[in-house]
Design a protein that fits this description.
With 184 residues, the protein is α+β, with helices and mostly antiparallel strands. The chain has four helices and nine strands. The longest helix is centred in the last third of the chain and has 13 residues. It is globular and about 35 Å long. The termini are far apart.
């Protein structure tokens, strides 16, 4: 108790500044928390975005025997759908699908989680060596007929998954227009 009284007396005995217009040499220390009064000490930050980058998701609007409509763009023949682009795919049928024709999916960054393969009117089996090579690279492969592959690809993209697709148009007069396309 006596020590606290001694400190209090020393604190009061501190000399006053000689000139009242001169700033103090010491400043009161602030804790780590700000009080409402401190808002006056700081300027507010204003951020202007020059450009918004829309992460446009790929969706298959429709398909027919000649090709696909992806995000409103027509693609003729077989195609490979990547997370943000569409490329022509140089295969004629499911028998032409090789490890080399799927190699673009393991070269991409960010890594593709799953590749949906549309083999035409009916589901065809792919060579087990191709499936093993994709699995070794950490990419799942889902082989379906093209109508179901289109629906699966749209569903996975809607979920936000990093997915790709390789699609062969179904032969004949088969065609489908999804609801979003029919409303336009």
């Amino acid at each position: 108790m006596a020590g606290a009284l001694a400190f209090r007396c020393l604190y009061r005995a501190r000399p006053a500044p000689h000139n009242p217009h001169v700033d103090r040499l010491w400043a009161p220390r602030r804790g780590h928390r700000l009080s409402p009064v401190d808002d006056e000490l700081y300027q507010r930050t204003h951020i202007s975005l020059l450009q918004r980058e829309g992460h446009q998701t790929m969706y298959i609007d429709s398909y027919n025997s000649r090709g696909f409509t992806v995000n409103g763009n027509r693609v003729l023949g077989p195609c490979a759908l990547l997370p943000h682009s569409v490329v022509q795919w140089n295969v004629g049928s499911h028998q032409d699908i090789t490890e080399e024709s799927l190699s673009l999916f393991w070269m991409l960054e960010p890594r593709i989680e799953i590749v949906v393969v549309g083999t035409g009117n009916k589901t065809e089996r792919l060579c087990s060596q191709i499936l093993r090579a994709m699995r070794q690279r950490g990419i799942a492969v889902e082989v379906q007929d093209t109508p179901n592959a289109c629906a699966t690809f749209n569903f996975l993209c809607h979920e936000g998954r990093v997915t790709g697709a390789v699609l062969i148009p179904p032969p004949g007069e088969t065609s489908l227009t999804f609801l979003g396309q029919a409303a336009k």
